[in-house]
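[Discussion] Sanity-checking designs against the backbone

I'm trying to build intuition for which residues belong where. Below is a structure token string of 244 positions. I'd appreciate it if someone posts a full sequence so I can compare it with mine line by line.
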């Protein structure tokens, strides 16, 4: 029965169904490739990065670096780079922030690659299904116009079958990959938020430390070479007596 049903589909309908099949395979390949890429990038996993940030906030830079020593994933790489930069140059807060944001942006751009392929499948599949509908109706009405007298329903079955089948397949593919695209986009958006949160946490913690150091020892970090710090701050240095 299935063979006879397929035999009723016209050649243009078979071509459209073939294109839809290729598109579904392409979309599925992209989807599973993104799953593998997300797993390698550690999307959704924040164990090492969160542990390092907690150690950094407590002032344990060595423990934070050790937590990220063998960690993999985009968030761990961004946090590791930012902490290493601030460990080398504690006052280079703005360059560190810019570098971390650029690294995060590059990583997110990699995660977002080929997402337009899924969007293309979502947009093109219903259009191909509609094309199959038009082709099937043209075929059905063509047979109806060519028939003399009462039309045989069996002659119209092929065109109607083509119209309904291609429409259903196109809509099914579009809905399936639309949901998959939404899910992947949501994971990328979540990862972007967590990266911005991690970078902001590092930068704010370092700025607070610098402000505390300046408040407790305002001359620390200045060009102090051994002279009385009161003179450096504007107070006159003590003078020796006449006999001194």
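Best answer:
Here's mine. Compare freely.
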């Amino acid at each position: 029965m299935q063979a006879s049903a397929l035999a009723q589909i016209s050649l243009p309908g078979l071509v459209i169904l073939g294109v839809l099949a290729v598109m579904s395979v392409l979309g599925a390949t992209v989807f599973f490739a993104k799953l593998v890429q997300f797993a390698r990038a550690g999307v959704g996993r924040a164990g090492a990065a969160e542990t390092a940030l907690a150690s950094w906030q407590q002032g344990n830079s060595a423990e934070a670096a050790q937590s990220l020593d063998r960690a993999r994933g985009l968030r761990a790489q961004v946090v590791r780079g930012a902490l290493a930069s601030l460990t080398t140059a504690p006052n280079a807060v703005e360059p560190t922030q810019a570098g971390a944001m650029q690294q995060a942006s590059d990583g997110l751009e990699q995660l977002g690659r080929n997402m337009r392929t899924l969007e293309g499948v979502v947009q093109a599949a219903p259009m191909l299904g509609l094309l199959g509908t038009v082709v099937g109706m043209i075929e059905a009405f063509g047979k109806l116009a060519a028939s003399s007298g009462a039309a045989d329903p069996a002659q119209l079955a092929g065109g109607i079958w083509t119209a309904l089948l291609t429409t259903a397949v196109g809509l099914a593919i579009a809905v399936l990959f639309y949901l998959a695209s939404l899910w992947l986009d949501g994971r990328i958006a979540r990862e972007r938020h967590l990266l911005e949160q991690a970078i902001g946490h590092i930068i704010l913690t370092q700025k607070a430390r610098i402000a505390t150091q300046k408040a407790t020892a305002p001359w620390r970090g200045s060009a102090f070479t051994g002279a009385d710090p009161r003179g450096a701050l504007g107070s006159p240095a003590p003078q020796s007596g006449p006999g001194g």
